[in-house]
């Protein structure tokens, strides 16, 4: 389990959300913190909620606002009320409720991939050079057909594409071919983006 996930789970278990809501001025009945209660959420619209639109769920340590269409825990409330990031919100809650920071695990220092990066990396590893070239070819055909780029720039991208084709035809390394194809595709996307800027 990641450090951030462990911190979030501990805050949900050990920090009473109802008290956090009261501390931030939410009009919530906190006399019996062990039961569900309806209250006005001030985190949407103009900050006034004429009809109580949020419901506190003590079992999960969260509340759901039907007007916002989302649930929040203590960390989310601190982040939105104080305009801070996840780490700062956790530290504020730990200090306020007397919790010692979780011990640091050296593995936490290793940079982990975001879910999107992991998916993209796995897709790239499985993509063959031929498939990568087909993606580049489709993109370049659309640029050419739509005349999205000036002819000279478009011709330069086709030349780069041809170099990858020749490299692979001469028994070039598959992995290098994929990387070369991705570079051509990236260059084409950047060229298109810069051509659309005023």
Report on this structure.
With 198 residues, the chain is an alpha+beta fold. The protein has two domains: 3-108, Zinc finger, CHC2-typedomain (DNA Primase, Chain A); 122-196. 56% of the residues lie in helices and 7% in strands. The chain has eight helices and four strands. α1 packs parallel to α4, α3 (74-82) packs across α4 (86-96) and α6 (129-146) runs antiparallel to α7. The radius of gyration is 26 Å and the shape is elongated.
Itemize the secondary structure elements and their pairings.
Blueprint: H1 3-14, H2 17-23, E1 37-39, E2 54-57, E3 62-65, E4 70-72, H3 74-82, H4 86-96, H5 115-126, H6 129-146, H7 151-169, H8 174-196
Antiparallel strand pairs: 1-2, 2-3, 3-4
Features:
single chain; 198 residues; alpha+beta; DNA Primase, Chain A; 2 domains; four-stranded antiparallel β-sheet; 4 strands
The computed structural class is alpha+beta
Q: CATH top level of the largest domain?
A: Alpha Beta
The main sheet orders its strands as 1-2-3-4
**Cα radius of gyration in angstroms:** 26 Å
Distance N to C terminus: 46 Å
Provide the CATH architecture of the largest domain.
Alpha-Beta Complex
CATH superfamily of the largest domain: Zinc finger, CHC2-typedomain
Order of helical and strand elements = HHEEEEHHHHHH
Number of helices: 8
Specify the helix fraction band: 55-70%
Examine the coordinates and then state which fold CATH places here, giving the name of the CATH topology of the largest domain.
Answer: DNA Primase, Chain A
Taken together, the total number of domains comes to 2
Strand residues, percent: 5-15%
Q: State the major sheet.
A: 4 strands, antiparallel
Low-confidence regions:
none
Overall mean pLDDT? 82
Number of strands: 4
